[in-house]
Fold this sequence. Notes:
Number of strands: 8
Oligomer: single chain
CATH architecture of one domain: 3-Layer(aba) Sandwich
Strand content: 5-15%
Shape: globular
Number of helices: 8
Radius of gyration: 20 Å
CATH class of one domain: Alpha Beta
Amino acid sequence: MTGKNGVMICGHGSRDEDAVREFKVLSEALIKRFPDMPVEYGYLEFATPIIKEGLAKLTEAGVSDVLAVPAMLFAAGHAKNDIPSVLNRYQAEHAGLNIHYGSELGLDIKMTRAAGERVREALSSSNSVIDPAETLLMVVGRGSSDPDANSNVSKLTRQLWEGLGFGWAETCYSGVTFPLVEPGLEHATRLGFKRIVVFPYFLFTGVLVKRIYEHADIVAARHPEIEFIKAGYLNDHPLVLDTLAERVSNILSGDNNMNCQQCKYREQILGFEDQVGLPQESHHHHVEGIGTGDGHNHDHDHAHDHDHSHDHGHHHPYPHADHPLGPRTLKRI
Length: 333
């Protein structure tokens, strides 16, 4: 890279105004980490600015080499297909511009430490004295049609379980895959623990995080004999910022490697063999920058919702969509 570098932070976007505000705060904090480079951010859908608007600002600032990082926990369809598609299209339309794509936050020691601190913060808010051996940790992932991303949540769960010394730990998901939050927590209540800590492994608030807490309240009401504690999501934890800044630096050093050995688009993953070689394309054009909140006049008559209990599975079908503990049981509350 011999030209002028600039950083592009790529987010997903949300209809939830609080989520968009939190992403903006994180992005502005990252800007301070790179005072010698212009830094912009943008979203795939709903919120503004959209990614190509951020890229346009970098281009106007004379940037020739864009260091683009997906501000996402794990690499699923959005990080593997949707964002690269937007970046590739913009680069093709602007001669002389080079966009270098970094890796997601991923399984990182710093991210695990940040997660552990959020769980400890939640425990410190309780007045009851319950031994860690009598506590079950429920880690809730977003859920994806990509088994690699889903399995990474399970690995994080095990790291937290061992690191914090809980009696037991389980993993469930907010959508797309199985088990979902309510059946997952109901199963957990039958394991005999006095306390259940519900930890959404999410970067920001939004429809799904709020739904997770609501489902936790529903199950807790059925089981007053168990203490339920709701831990906070990651948000702009300093270690999250450290990891995101490191992903930018990884591009410059050439260490921005994704885990392609477990990618369903490259390898024949059990149950997903028919998805090898699917085209890299984004399916977010119809919701780019349409706005947040309930007043954006966006009527979907197709069979998925943009609260993202899907992963655009109508394009890359999820083979277990009818699992009894999975997507078809999801209730909007």
